[in-house]
Specification:
The complex is a heterodimer of chains A (317) and B (321).
Chain A lengths: L5 E12 L8 E13 L4 E5 L6 H8 L7 E6 L2 E2 L5 H7 E4 L13 H12 L4 H14 L4 H4 L8 H13 L5 E5 L7 H18 L2 E5 L3 H7 L2 E6 L2 E7 H6 L4 H8 L40 H5 L4 E4 L2 E4 L5
Parallel strand pairs in A: 3-8, 3-9, 6-7, 7-8
Antiparallel strand pairs in A: 1-2, 1-4, 4-5, 9-10, 10-12, 11-12
Helix pairs in contact in A: 3-4, 3-6, 4-6, 6-7
Chain B lengths: L4 E10 L2 E11 L4 E5 L6 H9 L6 E4 L2 E4 L2 E2 L5 H7 L4 E4 L3 H4 L6 H13 L3 H14 L5 H5 L8 H12 L6 E5 L7 H18 L2 E6 L2 H7 L2 E6 L2 E7 H6 L4 H9 L48 E5 L2 E4 L9
Parallel strand pairs in B: 3-9, 3-10, 7-8, 8-9
Antiparallel strand pairs in B: 1-2, 1-4, 1-5, 5-6, 10-11, 11-13, 12-13
Helix pairs in contact in B: 4-5, 5-7, 7-8
Classes of the chains: A alpha/beta (317), B alpha/beta (321).
């Protein structure tokens, strides 16, 4: 079997949250013992509510944040200790908000050239050629390359962010909510572009989104995160057809598809909100689980392997 | 009987820019009317214009703007502010920015009643506790003493709803009320709104960009594009037989689990929403429309294409099904 594009082993990240001048800081566990691997050329979707640790996970995989424990291998190479320039050639980000992730005082072509310039050993001629190639790939004109971000629409800006991510010809792109700030018609354009680029360039995506319908459309495999842990990870088709974890089921139930007459579903999660600074004992999902029984509150469930993935729940064994 | 809210030919301009270009709609008692469209289409400006809350420089003009039978076009600020928060309430997208961070939940909630009705403090507090309970907040007494930053996003939005209900409004204008929330919380909040509507007979004007929400909660839908309502119909009818090319395009853009195959491209609308210069005539969508013809640059007919189903397009029957 070939080397996975991303491999994550026992990844963990803690934060210390100050509670005021004299109180001891609280420990917040944002990502707790997460392991998975993504085969080259496929798309792993990561879903979960805000605060579940999906962005922290992305930042560690991008090398923007040190893990507290565990390791990240990108294309078979350990990320810690890797040269920043070498890392940039392997893995690149596309962030949510194209309004704040692009320097407003730079022209589009300079923004896209930045990763190449930072490599330090690329000729000006080569930079121009690669920038032009990137612009064309994402469907922007040479003229649009001379503009400033403020002169572009949200969708065009996200194209700039994608062009910048592609200019070093990386193997892996981490997309953190890449379409959440966009209108639906523009979202569809960007999703189609990302799919086309993946096919043409053989890219691997880690695709983070709170929108399950979007994830279903793009991901080959989906990881559902809850309070820092992956509670279910399955092949996309299987997960949407037959979710095994009650949290996954609740997430799927809460998707409002444009089908009139169905009303708003009762997802049955109750009013308790997950708090990463105060993770419940036993199964961390049990206070919200509609069908939980005694063991759920007492012991943490073990990971159960399934034919097409894994699930972490007493009820799914 | 007249509608609770009746708008006819509403126009809003900011300087030379037309933000709303002649929209008409009604909201009946107990009805949810959804105004749906993409950013910049004028849906929020419409709601602000109804509330008399347009930013400086905004000019409103309408052939009719009546609330519960009263013409409110010429109401002055004092008259409008008596109406707002009392018989006509509003909830906004981001509860963090629309709640005052410097005051407790309790003082903001009771202020509404004390100001509009002169209710004594103790009674206002009772009412606040009652409503917080009603919107599903446990330990309402504790919440009253807290500041907005101490609450989660879902809780803040519930507080906003409870606050909007303090004076028993007849009309609730909700502008993207769940956009900032997680999907699980969104479902809870929308269920709550539907329940409250049933119990209190509220008329709701719901503004959203999310066709999923529209399908699940609206009785009637108006689709806005570039300051105009391009199509309006009862919800089931609109989703069953969308006629306007823009509505059709918008619906094809939404990924529906189990409907569109993975790796197959989603439908999309080429181009971007145009800026509308003063004196613009014809269809604002024509540059992005695959059915555009010469006639689209002329005056558009607004016609009926089904039961209570209206559309603004030169195609006599709309897009063929």
């Amino acid at each position: 079997m070939s080397t996975p594009a991303i491999e994550v082993r026992g990844l963990r990240r803690e934060f210390r949250a100050s509670q005021g001048l004299f109180a001891p800081p609280r420990r917040v566990i944002a990502v707790d013992d997460v392991s998975f691997s993504v085969p080259a050329g496929s798309v792993l979707g990561v879903v979960g509510e805000s605060g579940c640790g999906k962005t922290t996970l992305a930042r560690m995989i991008l090398g923007l944040m040190e893990p507290s424990a565990g390791e990240v291998l990108v294309d078979g190479k350990r990320l810690d200790g890797m040269d920043r320039r070498a890392r940039a050639r392997l893995i690149q980000p596309v962030f949510q908000d194209p309004f704040s992730s692009l320097n407003p005082r730079r022209r589009v072509r300079d923004i896209i050239a930045m990763p190449l310039v930072a490599q330090g050993n690329v000729t000006t001629l080569e930079i121009d050629r690669r920038v032009a190639e990137s612009l064309e790939r994402v469907g922007l004109s040479t003229e649009q390359g001379t503009r400033f971000p403020s002169q572009l629409s949200g969708g065009q800006r996200q194209r700039v962010a994608i062009a910048r991510a592609l200019v070093l010809r990386p193997r892996i792109v981490v997309c953190d909510e890449p379409t959440s700030a966009l209108d639906v018609s523009v979202q569809a354009q960007i999703l189609n572009l990302l799919a086309e680029l993946r096919r043409d360039l053989g890219l691997t995506y880690l695709f983070i989104s709170h929108n399950l319908a979007v994830v279903e459309h793009v991901a080959s495999e989906v990881a559902v995160m809850y309070l820092g842990r992956i509670v279910e990870r399955r092949e996309s088709e299987a997960l949407f057809r037959d979710p095994r974890h009650p949290y996954t089921r609740a997430l799927l139930d809460s998707v409002l598809t444009p089908e009139p007459g169905l009303g708003v579903p009762d997802v049955g999660l109750g009013d308790i909100m997950p708090d990463p600074a105060n993770i419940p004992p036993g199964c961390r999902f049990h206070p919200r689980g509609p069908a939980c029984f005694a063991p759920c509150a007492a012991t943490a469930p073990r990971i159960t392997s399934l034919e097409d993935g894994l699930v972490e729940c007493h009820l799914a064994g | 009987m007249s509608a609770l809210l009746d708008i006819e030919d509403l126009r809003v301009t900011f300087g030379g820019t037309a933000a709303v270009r002649g929209i008409s709609l009604t909201v009946e008692k107990g009805e949810t009317h959804c105004l749906v469209g993409e950013s910049g289409c004028g849906k929020s400006v419409t709601s602000l214009a109804v509330m008399g809350l347009l930013a400086k420089g905004g000019k409103r003009d309408a052939a009719r703007l009546s609330f519960a039978g009263d013409d409110i076009r010429d109401y002055n600020e004092a008259q409008m502010s008596r109406l707002r928060g009392d018989r006509m309430a509003m909830i906004f997208q981001e509860p963090m920015t629309s709640l005052n961070p410097a005051y407790t939940v309790g003082s903001q909630m009771t202020e509404v009643l004390r100001r509009h009705r002169g209710t004594p403090r103790a009674q206002a507090v009772d009412r606040a506790v009652e409503l917080l309970t009603r919107v599903g907040i446990t330990a309402p007494g504790l919440r009253l003493g807290q500041f907005p930053h101490q609450l989660s996003g879902g809780l803040r939005q519930r507080v906003m709803i409870a606050m909007a209900l303090m004076c028993d409004p007849e009309l609730l204008i909700a502008d993207e009320p769940t956009t900032a929330l997680d999907v699980t919380v969104q479902a809870q909040i929308l269920r709550l709104l539907a329940e409250l509507q049933k119990d209190l007979g509220l008329g709701i004007l719901l503004i959203t960009h999310d066709l999923g929400i529209v399908a699940r909660v609206a009785d009637r839908v108006s689709v806005m594009y570039a300051g105009e309502v391009v199509e309006s119909a009862p919800t089931a009818e609109l989703f069953r037989a969308p006629r306007h090319p823009y509505t059709r395009g918008l619906l094809s853009c939404v990924p529906v689990p189990g409907k569109v195959k993975r790796d197959e491209p989603l439908g999309s609308i080429p181009g971007v929403v145009p800026r509308i210069p003063p004196g613009f005539t014809g269809c604002a969508f024509r540059d992005r429309c695959s059915f555009a013809e010469a006639a689209c640059a002329g005056t558009l007919p607004r016609r009926n294409v089904g039961p209570a189903h209206e559309m603004l397009c030169v195609l006599p029957e709309g897009v063929p099904a």
